[in-house]
Fold Cap-specific mRNA (nucleoside-2'-O-)-methyltransferase 2.
Amino acid sequence: MYLMSHRGRGDSPYQRGRGRYPRRPGIGAGYRGHGPPRNPKREREFEKRVFSEEVQQEVDNLFNKKFSFDPNPKDNPRYLLPSADLLFSGEHFTLEKLASLKLELNIVKDKLNDKDPELWHDHTRRTNKAGLIVKNIRRQYHVEMCTQAWAKFHEILCMFPSICNTNTDDAFYSVHLCEAPGGFIGSLNHYIRARTSTKPWKWRGLTLNPYNESNDLGEMVDDDRFILETIEKWSFGLDNTGNVMRWKNILSLERQVKEETTRVDLVSADGSRDCQDNPNQQELRVSQLHYCESMAAMRLLSPGGSFILKLFTLFESQTLCLLYLLACSFGQLHLFKPSTSKAGNSEVYLVCLKFHGIDTFSEWHLQKLESAYTLQDHDKSIFPLSSLSSDFITSAKQAAEIFSGYQRDQIESNLRLFTVFTKPQQQFLSDVQLFAVESYDKRCSMKYIQDSLRILPDLFLDGIKLSVMALLRPDSKCSRQKNQDSLNDRRKQKLMSWHELHEIPTTSDESISNTIKRPRLEESGDYSEVSKSLLRSMGHQEGEGLGPSGEGRSEPVIPQTQQWGMGLGYEQGTISSEDTEEDIRWLKMGDSKSEMRSLFGDALHSVLNSRFCYCDTLQEMTEARSSAKVLLFTNREPMIHRCARDYPFYAFHLLSPPHSIPVEGLALGEIDTLLNFSSKISQSVIESKEVVHFLDLSHDPSGFSDYLCWKLPSAQGYGIRRTEMSGAVSSGRDTTRTVSLLLEQPVDLLLDEDLEQIYKECLSHSQVDLVIGDCACEPGSLMVYLRGHEEKRARQYFLVQIIIALHCLKKGGVFICRIYDIMTRATAGLIYFLHTVFSDICIVKPALSEPLSSERYLFCKGLQDVNRCKLFLLQELNKDINKTKESDPSKDILEIYPVHRLFQKEFFQFITLSNERLSKNRLEAIKQIERLFYLEGGRETFRPSDLTAVCKIALERAQIPLIL
């Protein structure tokens, strides 16, 4: 796992010297660092304030939302577990009282379904009686990781001081489940250090790994700044996901904890799941998560330890049985809703004290309980209703009624104030908020602690900017956007198909003009009456020019139906690369001393989140890949015919006779026109009086070689035959005089034996000036039809071609490689390696590349001296990948460099901006081609001259003749 801390190395995005964080935001020049800044005038004014009895009573109620289960029921000295045979033996049950309470609450909650989320959030923020507490803590005490979770946990610790006894110097060990971003940990540290500086304390956290691309962003808190700085203290389990609902991860965590301590005093679990689309079933949605958190806690805790679990409503049999299980396992059970927990939500914390110990369970009980530790909801109830104590059921009903009443009353109050919020009501609420701040300080005995007592003494994490992505991305856009639509609107959208959401007609009688909302044309060729009416409403007179002084065009624009299919006003010269010279972003060489570290875990079946792409863009791409018909292999041929006049890539596939250079070679020519690499190589070779040598790793013969042989007639090339590309179509061009094979027999690049054979053969030849790589592992352009798996399939091919290139290239040489998505840590790590050995790199997407594919070209120039030790590590990494495939196909490489290396600002922005730009372009291409695909009968059949014209324009831009 993570063996080394990088704190204090000077390369973290949070280092004070880099100006990421001020040491004390908002502190004046007179601050000396010996305590919180004082504002005597404000304090004197506050002390003079006298609050009414109504205000004081309101605040007292705010801080006393607590319910305790009787630790000494009448019928038993403590609750007892039923027989193991009864566990998971019956169906889930419903209690009439609890069902009635759930219905009453949901009726009130349904009144919010049509509310605008942004307006409602602003309103509830104003009406939050504890709304000023967190701001005051942050301003007055400058606590570490000051989030709302920090304030809630601090209040829990102060309400139940037996959780952590600070009157002794006994060592204290805590484990925090589902903890991101880390507010509980920061709060516990402050609680301990504000009372004693000598008590030993260690902690470990387990949460969904924000850097594991298989974790669904909707299921986790995407705030990683504290995690990044304390990465060595976090456990992400055997699969590297950090999923608490996988038993193997809990066993792995248990082993790590036992290596560090013999006693665990506290386990906290603050987990939840995204329930925005169905808030009425929140309790059912999180019930299995709560069960897994509870079982993990009892597995980890020592006798006498404490467990804090976040629950929601208390209506379902799953929650009722879990409460009973914990009541049988702990000496005391308390339900507590902190004042800083928003009163309008269902959140309530279960505080379990005095754990009896896991040894009190029989072996048969443990086996039955652990068998239900799964990702899926269990279809059986933990206990039958008849086995639950009557006193316990009575207490559970009372608790459910009390806490649902708190929530129901607050929602109804907010609804009333949403309509009418008078000045007296505002003044009363303001007094409550001010008195709540004073009460929180007194009840929690708030104190300031010195920097040296913080978890991260050299940094100041203030609890506001939570994400590395928000810090490093130039537009400061958050990685996850909140829903801007009401619940009713979201439900309507959920019923719509992808095509409907993007206004893509899927029937032949709908035309593309309807979809893109252009004015319809009448038979006369003029604009419709609707358009004329709009012009008249703007004051336009026939024969006069548009504009305030009549300076605009006086004649109406005559719409023309053109053969190019690109829309009104299209000119032949507008076909261009997706990238221009101004779009290219260069990345200068980085630190070549960066350490490499390989990390293996469960293979990614799909990429659900990425540090290197905005989540909204990634989600749109995922939806498009699963819904667009043009990405189906069976639709490839009709799609090509319908899009050939609009996209030159497809026009070249249909050109007859075919162009003598295949389309991938033409794409390389377009890159050459953009970056002028061939001329620079030729010039350097002429100066040294040598011949240009290149190595083509795609396949023999390939379009890349065809282009280079045409562009550099005197060049000498080498190539290989790849077994996985045996279905590739030959270009038909004779390149045998200038391109020779390194090996006679076909090779598999991924096999260690074949790769070593290529090394030896490369070393026997003179070093080359240029290496062309191709990460495609299928003949032709089939990679586009892998539906999101292109990056996974191509990654190892990318690795081995980097190794070959570094063996063969001269110093100052050029490496060009066709790659695919860069969404994962592993692929980004390979590019980071190239970033440390080449003077400049860039990523380009030619217009003559597959528009539906994620393919792009990585261009690296100026090879520097390569550390042979690093090259050896790359070779060993490939061997490890092959060994892992043989021993456990479910595992794969996840990291090549530690994540903090990939978050260096220049590199991070280079990858992110490239991904964002190319992904958006690809999305638009998918939607446009999907529209064209459904235009069956809606467009005239193209003529050969149409294709020739499209190809000619593209070739003119690439400066390649149409016929060679």
Remarks:
- The CA atoms of residues 69 and 333 lie 6 Å apart.
- Residues 1-34, 508-528, 558-577 have pLDDT under 50 and may be disordered.
- The longest strand covers residues 809-819.
- The radius of gyration is 33 Å.
